Amino acid sequence: MSEPSIFFSDVNERQGSFLRRTFVVGGLTALGVTALTVRLAQLQVVQAQEYATLASQNQFNFRLVPPPRGRILDRNGVVIAGNRPSFRVLVVRDETKDLDQTLDLLGQLLPDTVDRRRAIIRDVNAAPRFAPVPVKSDLTWEEFAKVNIYANELPGVMADMNEARFYPYGGSFAHVIGYVAKVSDRDIAAVRDRGEEVPQLLYNPGFRIGRSGVERALDEDLRGVEGGNRVEVDARGRVVAEDVGGSRPATPGKDVVLTLDADIQNRALEVFGEEAGSCVVMDVRNGDILAMVSAPSFDPNLFVSGVPGPIYRAWADYERRPLTDKAINGVFAPGSTFKPVTGLAALIRGANPDRRIHCGGAFYLGRRFACHATHGSQDMREAIKNSCNVYFMTLAVEVGPDAIADVARTMGFGQTFDLGIGNQNAGLVPDREWRRQNPVRGDGRWYPGETPSYGIGQGALTVNALQLAVYTSRLANGRKAVQPRLIKSIGGEEQSVPGGDRDLPYSPEMLAVLRDGMNRVTDVGGTGFRNSQLGLGAVRMAGKTGTAQTRNYGSGARRSNVWSQKDHNLFIAYAPIDNPRYAVSVIVQHGGLGGGTAGAPRAREVMRVALLKDPEIRQRIEQSGFAETEDPGSHEANALGAAEPAQVDARPAPAASTGPRPYLSEPPE
Question: Residue ranges of the Penicillin-binding protein transpeptidase domain (predicted)?
Answer without folding.
Answer: 277-607
